[in-house]
Design brief:
Chain lengths: ~850, ~300
């Protein structure tokens, strides 16, 4: 690699390039025509769809906000009824958080990351497309429940017991639990894609230290999704089990506790705020240097700050629970943690100011949005410090002060950067840039309107107005601030209309003839882009390669850098090592297809039908999903096509197995997700014990010797199968079948023993937790079984052997994890009552 | 200022401490915001010396790490002190105990008289001025939050848990409060009033509150009482001294003496009482009381007259 692009003028590949090379590359990456575009998997196409959908949900949820502001414009208004208003504010919050904010930043990652990292595409294009379609369909159906009055009305954080079967009969709450639970799974799928993409598909030479800050933020973002979302997924599983089968996790009379939900929800909910904010901050850290034409001041400090924010944000969930009557000591701890998290954000603010001071800020529309962001976000951060002060929070909590605070943080910290990003990156993806004039008008409308709408809410909250009230009486001093807020909301809406008009007039998405580098940016997304990214993959030796090598754009286009064409005739991307970005493997990527799309449609159908209790139909859809997934996975893991020369004498294998393969990394991330989910469960189990230890058994049931034996057998079989793969197909198949069978038998035996002892899940919080363990174990074991059957099918079809073994490697990881989780489950459900009893 | 529901009008020690804390926070925030905006201004338009200074990594470390840590540490210490001074200080030995239970969407209030006898009321809490009052907060259904900003911060009412809140009113007056945790349906219409009375006045009020209901004085009231009992109102409402002993809805033994009805959302006029009986689902959608349209206009006014006489 040292021979790669250097100042001496040596390039990995010589000119002229062979005839037809470019044509073959273009043919490999050609998009499906016409309406078949829905089968596309390329990150740029999916990225467009993704962002358009997310922005569409932003507009829809914004309309809901205008309805609410109209209702609250005057006291005792009757524009909206109580139930309608309650559904609308629930949907506004839920849609903004789950259907707009998280998908929007994930969409920006899908669209920008490959370009920015010098990859041809993300490593698992069909997974990304699957996540998008599942989100689109699930999200649309979820939103439409509003039109038929079936929307949830329990508030976006859905506190039980209000959302329990007793106080919220009907399907509204189920739509929230299954619909949002399912969209969270789609977010996790996207996060897996982003983690592996950022760590393994960077251009050669782009070490972690040279990686753009946006990529860092997306990495931290995805890591946080992996650890935070499982907590809320577990919470939704538990609440749905309670609603459907009367398992009393949150019912106090039977040894459950409503606060368990709050702990689990906010363990997700607080990081969620930073999950949304960090990528937006990452966008700002790309745009400020470009607009000021200078490198980011304090680049490494910012990276440290991002990672610190990620860690801290998991330690402050209790600051949403300061009024629940927790002990003063824990309040003090969480108060301190809540303040600590503002330090890294403050550091970023001063780093942006420093960068502006170091260069000369061009006052473009994007720059205005940055300045607006800095002002609004700083104010939101300051009110955040206020609500982190426990006694102040006792007054401000659940009032309009908090509504003002989090809109300053979220709109300031995410919507402004996103609009900024639209104005900045549009030329990279559109034939025309957006209009500077319209962008500036939009900025002033949105900035002024936002402050007019939300600043008075600080006051209305402190003079007593609680949030989530559909109406208020005159005479409490709330009339004027509310009227002003309503006026401001409509000014914001006017600004958003200007943005939409600008999109209509100027946004012409293109995959071939974008307006290009109009801002003179320094990072790789400003190379000339096609569906396949840049013509050749540059060697990166600085943080702003386009500034370091002014001729790079031209040289890349001529094909002088790595991989100027297709080596195997299909889609490919270079896989590099995670830290130093040394090329390791030429990964072949799939093209357009139907199976992932069918799988997405029917996964959505499965969950939605389950919500309305159409179980038979739901199961039929589940069957189609499995069939589609098998069809999808069957074509993956192609056999080796030999070595490929990508330039500079570097010859890369086209098949690898084990930790070099990106799917190994993806599977490890899946295990982290599963582990986080299970640890949330362990927390829930132990937490309920602290609340009502009396429901725990005093005489534990017999030792689980048979289940333990089964697990040991399964573990031995796993070890045997790993060795036998190269030698005997028959013995390998036998070990696989017996090992997975033993796992299933062990889990079933354990559940059976609990049942035989007379324990019923609806009896108490304890009993419900014991059976929740069985449910979680069954989930993992079910996936292991499906993957085991798939592996055997590959073996029979001759698509699995000692070398071509990625399918088995992935199974082995999950299988090993399943044994571990099952053992931990036995230890917890049998060991803990013995220790505690 | 009667009925005001504002943290800026503190009438008790905890609310006063928090109001002072808020003042410090607001001033501090204004200063920091000014510094940030000024720094941004100089970064864009300042002299080259000013811009060089701001562009140094040292400026980032001082402005973004050192300053916040020092300022936040000081604030944290202050906040913890306020917290100790309010919640952690023990209630006086002569403290008054009142049980408040949040229900969808009203407040059940229970006092104890000198003999420890339970005296139930609803939606209005009367307290003696200057004396510590410890509220025992519970929930009968979903999570509610008890909040009277002039007296103290809010405390949640959570099923299966008992929280307490100590309040003291510094002077006589009426302090409005409202449920602060979204509790479904008519959450917006779940308010209450705390009425602080001088000690002597409070004592005589409590004695009267604990007595049986006043006897129906006139013919109309007597007719009203019979209609009330015949229509089955007593299945949900209690009026001590009559057959009505329901526990589902608010105790009405002294309903005529209350300032408001329907959880402090309507003044307790005869018109409003009548409207609530006939059309309660419109005034407060989803509340537990079905509309009583069985009464003729005359009968309705008799029932209302009876209720209004319960003072």
């Amino acid at each position: 690699m040292t021979r790669a692009a250097t100042a001496t003028g040596e390039y990995p590949n010589d000119l002229p390039r062979p005839e037809g090379e470019l044509e073959r590359l273009e043919a490999a990456w050609e998009l499906p025509k016409g309406w078949r575009i829905v089968t596309a998997v390329n990150n740029t196409v999916i990225g467009y769809f993704y962002i358009a959908t997310a922005f569409g949900f932003f507009v829809l949820a914004g309309i809901l906000a205008l309805l609410m502001r109209t209702q609250l414009a005057v006291p005792d208004n009757t524009f909206l009824g109580q139930e309608t208003y309650n559904q609308i504010f629930t949907m506004h919050g839920t849609v903004m958080m789950f259907l707009f904010a998280v998908p929007a930043v994930e969409a920006m990652g899908v669209l920008l990351l490959p370009q920015m990292l010098g990859a041809r595409d993300l490593p698992f294009p069909r997974l990304g497309a699957f996540a998008f379609w599942a989100y689109l369909i699930g999200g649309l159906v979820f939103f439409c429940t509003l039109f038929v009055g079936l929307a949830p009305s329990g508030g976006w954080f859905m506190y039980p017991p209000l959302t329990s079967e007793r106080f919220s009969p009907g399907v509204g709450a189920d739509f929230w639990l299954l619909g949002i639970g399912f969209i969270e799974i789609s977010a996790i799928a996207g996060a897996i894609e982003i983690i592996v993409g950022v760590l393994r598909t960077r251009a050669p030479g782009m070490t972690l230290d040279r990686m753009p800050i946006f990529a860092w933020t997306m990495l931290v973002f995805a890591g946080m999704v992996v650890f935070a979302f499982p907590a809320v997924i577990l919470a939704t599983i538990l609440l749905e089990l309670e609603r459907a089968f009367d398992w009393p996790f949150f019912i106090a009379e039977r040894g459950g506790d409503p606060l368990l939900w709050q702990h689990l929800f906010w363990f997700f909910g607080h990081p969620e705020v930073y999950i949304i904010f960090l990528p937006a901050a990452g966008m700002v850290s790309m745009i400020v240097p470009a607009m000021a034409q200078t490198s980011m001041v304090g680049h490494r400090l910012i990276v440290v700050a991002l990672i610190a924010t990620g860690f801290f944000s998991f330690g402050l969930w209790v600051h949403h629970m300061f009024t629940t009557g927790l002990p003063a000591l824990s309040l003090g701890f969480f108060s301190a943690a809540s303040m600590a998290v503002s330090v890294p954000s403050g550091l970023q603010v001063f780093a942006w100011i420093a960068t502006i001071a170091a260069g000369r800020l061009r006052l473009t529309a994007a720059s205005l949005f940055v300045l607006g962001f800095l002002f609004i976000f700083t104010l939101g951060g300051l009110t955040g410090v206020m609500v982190a002060m426990v006694p102040f929070d006792w007054q401000a909590h659940d009032t309009y002060f908090v509504v003002a605070h989090f809109h300053y943080v979220l709109v300031g910290g995410m919507v402004f950067p996103l609009l900024c990003a639209f104005y900045y990156w549009a030329p990279a993806f559109s034939r025309r840039p957006l209009s500077e004039r319209m962008g500036k008008s939009a900025f002033w409308l949105i900035f002024i309107g936002f402050n007019v709408a939300f600043f008075p809410m600080h006051i209305s909250g402190l003079i007593g107005m609680p949030r989530r009230v559909y109406s208020y009486p005159a005479g409490l001093g709330w009339d004027l601030p509310n009227l002003i807020s309503t006026v401001g909301a409509f000014i914001v809406a006017a600004g958003i209309l200007v943005v939409l008009a600008d999109f209509l007039r100027n946004l012409r998405p293109t995959l071939t003839k974008s307006a290009g580098d109009v801002w003179k940016g320094g990072t790789l997304e400003w190379l000339e882009n096609h569906t396949y990214g840049a013509r050749s993959v540059p060697h990166v030796d600085s943080r702003e390669p386009l500034w370091t090598h002014p001729r790079m754009s031209e040289d890349v286009k001529k094909g002088r850098y790595y991989l100027p064409g297709t080596m195997t005739g299909g889609r490919e991307t270079i896989v590099t090592s995670p830290v130093e970005a040394v090329p390791q493997y030429l990964m072949r990527l799939p093209g357009p297809g139907w199976p992932h799309l069918i799988a997405a449609v029917f996964t959505a159908a499965f969950f939605l039908l389950l919500t309305v209790k159409a179980v038979a139909l739901a199961l039929a859809c589940g069957g189609i999903v499995i069939a589609a997934m098998i069809a999808w996975m069957w074509s993956s893991d192609p056999a080796s096509a030999g070595e490929a020369d990508i330039g500079a004498g570097i010859s890369l294998p086209t098949y690898v197995a084990g930790p070099t393969h990106p799917s190994w990394w993806a599977m490890v991330v899946v295990l982290l997700v599963a582990g986080a989910l299970y640890l949330s469960y362990v927390f829930g189990y132990l937490y309920l014990w602290t609340v009502s230890p009396a429901t725990w058994p005093t005489t534990p049931i017999s030792m689980p010797s048979w289940p333990v034996t089964c697990l040991i057998v399964s573990g031995v079989a796993l070890a045997a199968a790993t060795r036998l793969l190269g030698s005997s197909r028959l013995l390998f198949a036998l070990a696989l079948a017996c090992g997975i069978g033993a796992l299933l038998v062990g889990l079933a035996l354990d559940a059976w023993t609990q049942w035989q002892s007379g324990l019923r899940p609806s009896a108490s919080g304890y009993a419900a937790m014991v059976y929740a363990n069985a449910v979680l174990q069954a989930q993992i074991a079910g996936v292991v079984t499906a993957m085991g059957a798939f592996t055997l099918a590959r073996l029979v079809a001759g698509r699995l052997d000692a070398d071509r073994r990625v399918v088995f490697d992935n199974l082995a990881l999950l299988w090993g994890y399943a044994i571990g989780e099952a053992a931990l489950g036995l230890l917890l459900t049998h060991g803990f009552p013995r220790v505690a009893g | 200022m009667t009925g005001l529901q504002s943290m800026f009008a503190p009438m008790g020690p905890e609310a006063a401490l928090i109001a002072d804390l808020a003042a410090v926070l607001f001033v501090g925030a204004a200063v920091v915001l000014t510094i940030v905006v000024a720094a941004l201004w100089f970064a864009m338009l300042g002299s080259s010396a000013a811009r060089r200074g701001l562009a140094a990594e040292r400026a980032v470390i001082v402005g973004g790490i050192v300053f916040p840590i020092v300022a936040l540490a000081a604030l944290l210490a202050y906040g913890l002190w306020v917290m100790r001074a309010s919640v952690a200080s023990p209630a006086a030995s002569n403290a008054m105990r009142i049980e408040v239970t949040g229900e969808q969407w009203w407040w059940r209030v229970a006092y104890r008289d000198g003999d420890g006898r339970r005296i139930e009321s609803a939606n209005e809490i009367r307290i003696p001025v200057g004396r510590d009052v410890v509220l025992t907060l519970r929930s009968a259904d979903v999570i509610h939050s008890f909040w009277v900003p002039s007296l103290a911060g809010k405390v949640d009412m959570i099923p299966g848990r008992v929280n307490t809140l100590k309040i003291v009113a510094k002077q006589p007056g009426v302090y409005r409060g409202q449920c602060a945790e979204y509790c479904g349906g008519a959450h917006a219409l779940m308010a209450l009033e705390v009425v602080a009375l001088p000690e002597a006045e409070f004592a005589s009020w409590l004695a009267a509150e604990g007595a049986q209901a006043t006897d129906a004085a006139g013919e109309t009231e007597r007719q009203g009482r019979e209609l009330f009992l015949a229509a089955g109102c007593g299945a949900c409402h209690a009026i001590r001294g009559t057959r009505a002993d329901g526990r589902i809805g608010p105790d009405l033994t002294r309903v005529g003496a209350r300032r408001q009805i329907a959880a402090a959302t309507l003044p307790a006029t005869r018109e409003n009482l009548a409207r609530f009986i006939v059309d309660g689902q419109h005034l407060k959608p989803g509340n537990g009381m079905p509309p009583f349209r069985v009464f003729s206009a005359e009968e309705l006014s008799a029932v209302v007259a009876y209720l209004a006489s319960l003072k």
